[in-house]
Write a structure and sequence with these properties.
Elements: E1 5-14, E2 19-29, E3 34-38, H1 45-53, E4 60-65, E5 68-69, E6 80-84, H2 95-105, H3 110-123, H4 139-151, E7 157-161, H5 169-186, E8 189-194, H6 197-203, E9 206-211, E10 214-219, H7 221-226, H8 231-236, E11 241-249, E12 252-255, E13 258-261, E14 271-277, E15 282-285, E16 292-301, E17 306-312, E18 315-321, E19 330-335, E20 341-344
Parallel strand pairs: 3-8, 3-9, 6-7, 7-8
Antiparallel strand pairs: 1-2, 1-4, 4-5, 9-10, 11-12, 11-14, 12-13, 14-20, 15-19, 16-17, 16-19, 17-18
Length: 360
């Protein structure tokens, strides 16, 4: 299946200081896909979005739309609209005229404008708000107006640059669900930018994890979380225990002075590797019945689970559990083979192992 948008060896260097923002980026975005560009500030995700929108051009490389280069196509001629974190609504206009603005610029028939605007307000659950002014709306309502204004022009691609960043936690989670449902109903491509891992995992068909202008991993939310390709992805997507180890042979790994069964293979004999174990996959069992002996150093109640640090053989495991173990408890740790994920040694993101009971 041919891609709707395709980046080919795209590099972006800002002339003022020579900073490389994107470094030979290759990326394919499919029609009707909800793709999220995820990464820390400065990783290049917003630059990628702006290139798609036509606001900036790459220093080198090409961007294709339905197989043809769009680098010379001006923004207003691209079937792309953008929703920003700052919604940029017109305060002197009511909701109806904010949404209708783009249609009026195109000199669309008045009756058609009315029909399209009212249909779009219904879709974003703002029927009856046509005459409201922007200052009379909540943050969530303003966000919906911004989305309606972008969608009423029937773009093939909607770009969303951290549009939920200004909302409180409860409303942000509600809007995550609404955005995903909206994308399914409309059947258009959403390209979403965020540094929030939960947003990316909740809404996306595909997550692209970026760092320093380079794609670290592309995959489904499940793949990104359960099978991180390197230490950066493992650290950035949720909490992780990352340890150095040695792959003795297929499905056998050694770390913290013990040998463990795992489900991974294809590594060299006695190859140095890194191990990822998610906190929820570490089981606390009675002393004498587990794989590693440990001591609970601290416990924190997080609402749906307890977060504990357990010191074992010079390493402090982060553990999430619905059962509490009090600080000072002598316990054992058990880890199932499926919970031990093996990665190639990441030379650029070395795990800083410590012997004082703190994770790197």
């Amino acid at each position: 299946m041919s891609a709707l948008i395709e980046f080919r060896d795209v590099t972006k260097i800002y002339d003022d200081d020579g900073t490389i923002v994107l470094d030979r980026l290759n990326l394919s975005i499919q029609k009707n896909e909800f793709m999220t560009l995820l990464g820390p500030s400065g990783c290049g995700k917003t630059t990628t979005l702006r290139i798609i929108g036509g606001f900036i051009n790459p220093t080198s490389g090409d961007v294709l739309y339905n197989g043809g280069s769009i680098l010379k196509v001006p923004p207003h001629k691209r079937r792309v609209n953008t929703v920003f974190q700052k919604y940029a609504l017109f305060p002197h206009m009511d909701v109806f005229n904010n949404v209708a603005f783009g249609l009026k610029i195109k000199k669309t028939d008045k009756e058609q404008i009315r029909t399209k605007v009212l249909d779009m307000l219904k879709m974003v659950n703002l029927t009856g708000y046509e005459s409201r002014r922007v200052h009379q709306l909540s943050g969530g309502q303003q966000q919906r107006v911004a989305i309606a204004r972008a969608l009423v022009n029937e773009p093939e691609i909607l770009l969303l640059d951290e549009p939920l960043g200004a909302l409180d936690l409860k409303l942000r989670r509600e809007m995550q669900v609404e955005l995903k449902n909206m994308q399914k109903r409309l059947g258009i491509t959403f390209i979403y930018v965020t540094h929030d891992q939960e947003e990316a995992l909740t809404m996306s068909d595909t997550v692209v994890v970026m760092n320093n202008g380079v794609i670290q991993q592309t995959g489904t939310p499940t793949d990104i979380y359960n099978e991180p390709s390197n230490a950066f992805v493992a650290r950035f997507i949720g909490d992780s225990n990352i340890l150095d180890g040695v792959m003795k042979k297929d499905r056998t790994v050694e770390f913290l002075g013990k040998t463990f069964e795992c489900v991974d293979g294809g590594f060299g004999t006695n190859e140095d590797v890194q191990i990822v174990i998610r906190p929820e996959d570490v089981d606390i069992v009675p002393r004498g019945s587990g794989m590693l002996a440990g001591v609970v150093t601290d416990t924190l109640f997080k609402g749906v689970h307890y977060e504990m640090n357990i010191y074992c053989n010079g390493y402090s495991f982060l553990v999430h559990s619905t059962d509490i173990s009090e600080p000072g408890s002598a316990i054992d740790v058990s880890i199932e083979p499926e919970a031990i994920h093996i990665m190639k040694k990441d030379k650029n993101l070395q795990q800083e192992m410590t012997t004082d009971g703190e994770n790197a």
